[in-house]
Structure formats: structure tokens, C-alpha cells
Amino acid sequence: MSSDLAAVILAHNEAENIVACIESVRWTGHVVVVVDTRSSDATADLAAQAGAEVLPHRFENYAQQRNAALTLVETEWVFFVDADERSTPAQAEEIRATLARPAHNGYWIPRHNYIFGKLTRHTGWYPDYQMRLLRRRHARYDPQRQVHELVLLDGEPGHLTEPLIHYNYRSLRQFREKQQRYVAFDARILHEQGIKPRPHKFITQPLRHFYWRFVTLQGYRDGWHGLRLSLLMAWYELQKYVHLRRLARQE
User: Fold this and answer.
1) What pLDDT digit, counting tens, does each position of 90-149 carry?
2) pTM for the complete prediction?
3) Which strands form 118-119's sheet, in the order they lie side by side?
4) Which residue of 11, 14, 163, 195 has the lowest C-beta tally within 10 Å?
5) Other Cβ atoms within 10 Å of 138 Cβ, number
6) Is beta strand 5-11 parallel, antiparallel or unpaired with respect to 33-36?
């Protein structure tokens, strides 16, 4: 297994997370690879001290960064893990068993998301499948999807059951900062697709998004936590159209 599978961590200013993340994927048996986006904190030094191979790479977008990572390693299989995620012994057993007789070139992996310190089982954050286990020569990322990356895989993917643990959004400030970045990316995509910010969309889209999160995705089962998340995501759906209108006016 050591020559067949490498864990790859994309990192930027993740000093508080990087060592624990590396420790959680040592079971892969290969040197853990950290693709560092010129961090200004101690991420690279801490990763090297923890025994990882640190490969600096300039960031352009998320899809390009993962495609670059696929070319920087030489193993048959790559297991992508973000710095704020942790693998588990149960997941290690499942992946080892899967790669002993692989039936697919890529596998979806669920995530357990901890948001503001609370495990979020509904509201759209579970199962939250991510395609992270890839046969390197049979997978690449769509360059047109610069955020919320899309894997272009040879053949149909499989599904695993053991989740990654994702310590997502530790604070409201972090939530706001990340959502503002997503808003800008998503609005730009809509703008490039020729979608116009019609006046009624500023009302209907946030309402639909709230209903989707809180009712369809059963956010109500997460209680007050689910209500707050549904309201926050509806607010950022509104902000996406505000940003789209700004782009249209600039044009």
C-alpha cells in the first residue's frame, strides 16, 4: 500500500491544523504531501517537522491547485484531505479494503461537519459527499469550476461509508469570510453564464434557499442551530445576487 497511495493536503495558513491533519493520515504508509500556497504563518515549517513533504505551489484557483497536486505525486492513488479535516482508523480500514480490489477509479467520501463546534447532521451538511479518493491517471478537475471543484473521472465513481471529520466554520467570523469568497466566485460564474439579476430574484431566491435548507434538507431537525444556518445561507444567497447586479452594472 505504501507505494500505491499518497495522502495530499492542500494548505494555506493552517498552522493550527496541519500537524493534527498529517497525523490522521499517516496510515496511508506513504510520505504525506502538503501542497502549500505560500503560507505566511508556520504551516510549511510545522508540516516539515511533522515529516511531511512540503511542495510550494502558487494558488490560481481550487481546481488548478488540485490538478497540480495530481502531477506532483507519483503514486497510483491519491487521497485528498483538507487541513481542517481528519481521517479516522475506521476510514483507514475501509480504504485499505477498497484499494485491495478497486472497482472504480474514484470514490465519494461523506463528511461529518462540525459547524460552530456542533456536529451538523442536516441543513445540507450531511452526507456532504466529496470525491477525494482518486486513481491519479484517471481523474482531473474541471478547470471551468474554479470553486466547488468538479472531478472529471474515467468511468463511474463508487461510494464509501466512513466519513472524514471536518472542523468547518469554527466561528461566525470565519463563516462570514468564507461565504463572502464563495459569493464572489458564484456570482462571477452566473455572470459568465449570462444570467441576469432580475428584481424578483432578490426575494424569491433567498426564500427558496431558506426553504430548501430548513425544510427540504430538514434543517429543523438541527433545532436552533439549523434555523440559524438556514437564515445565514439565505442571506448569502441574497448577497450573491447583489454581487451579480454589481458585475452587470460594471459591464
Assistant:
1) 999 999 999 999 999 999 999 999 999 999 999 999 999 999 999 999 999 998 876 778
2) 0.89
3) 85-86, 164-168, 111-115, 118-119
4) 195
5) 14
6) parallel
Q: How confident is the model at residue 2 (pLDDT cuts 50, 70, 90)?
A: very low
Q: Tell the residue number behind the cell numbers 475506521, with chain if given.
A: 90
Q: Edge-to-edge strand order for the sheet containing 53-56?
A: 53-56, 33-36, 5-11, 77-82, 130-135, 106-109, 158-159
Task: Report the SS3 class of residue 56.
Answer: strand
pLDDT at 69 over 90: yes
Residue 88 and residue 160 in contact, taking contact as beta carbons nearer than 8 Å: no
- Please classify residue 116 by burial: count the beta carbons closer than 10 Å to its beta carbon, then call 0-12 exposed, 13-18 middle and 19+ buried: middle
Contact 193, 186 (CB under 8 A): no
User: Between these two residues, 165 and 30, which has the higher pLDDT value?
Assistant: 165
